[in-house]
Write a structure and sequence with these properties.
Largest sheet: 4 strands, parallel
Low-confidence stretches: none
Shape: globular
Strand content: 15-25%
CATH class of the largest domain: Alpha Beta
Strand order of the largest sheet: 2-1-3-4
CATH architecture of the largest domain: 3-Layer(aba) Sandwich
Mean pLDDT: 94
Order of helices and strands: EHEHHEHHEHEHEHEHEHH
Distance between the termini: 41 Å
Number of helices: 11
Number of strands: 8
Helix content: 40-55%
Radius of gyration: 17 Å
Number of domains: 2
Amino acid sequence: MRYAPVDGRRIGMLTPSSNTVLEPYTSAMFAPFGQEASAHFGRFRVVEISMSEASQSQFTLEPILEAAERLAEAQPHLIAWNGTSASWLGLEKDRALCAAITERTGVPATSTILAYDALLRKMGVKRLGVVTPYIEDIEARMIANYATQGIEVVSAARLDDKGNYSFATYPPDQVGAMVREVAKAKPDAIAIVCTNFRGAPVAAQIEADTGIPVLDSVSITAAHCLAEVGLDPARVTGWGSVFARVAG
């Protein structure tokens, strides 16, 4: 008997080293596609989120490109930086990073924050709610960056945590309570900005209760990547409306 080779879409994802949320969540989101799609992960060192020199040095180009090269050896159809640093460092940071990844590996590249940018524009969001585990300085820079994109952050909630590993220790219900608090301002959408934060499991219920789109970072990255490799994100259900919104 002759067998046809498995020829699914492979998506490589660059992951902060201390992140424990995005890999299992992404794999669960990809499950409806079976062998049609798979996610493969490469790590580089990220252990603190602040504006300190040590923290910012984690996002220098060369270590990320080295991790991308290792991912490229799995012959992915796309490489995504599955992280949110450009939300405070600026969109141009991710545009430059993605261009550098493609130049180094020959593989198209995208990121979580570029996925947000595309969907927020598509949805016409002008009033945004933001939920993060980050410290005040990071949140303030995020709000300023959204303002340059014509988006007003009308409500924000944060945990004032610098850790990266620790972000994953907050349970979904705690993240959900933050989202519900932000929802009181009735923004056009709420962004849960962190790929090591457990917002995805509660997004669908909060949307049903409030009527406000909840855009989780892990979910939006998965949806965007699926669309970029020619698969229909709307096949993913149970994680909120972001998959249908990216597909629509």
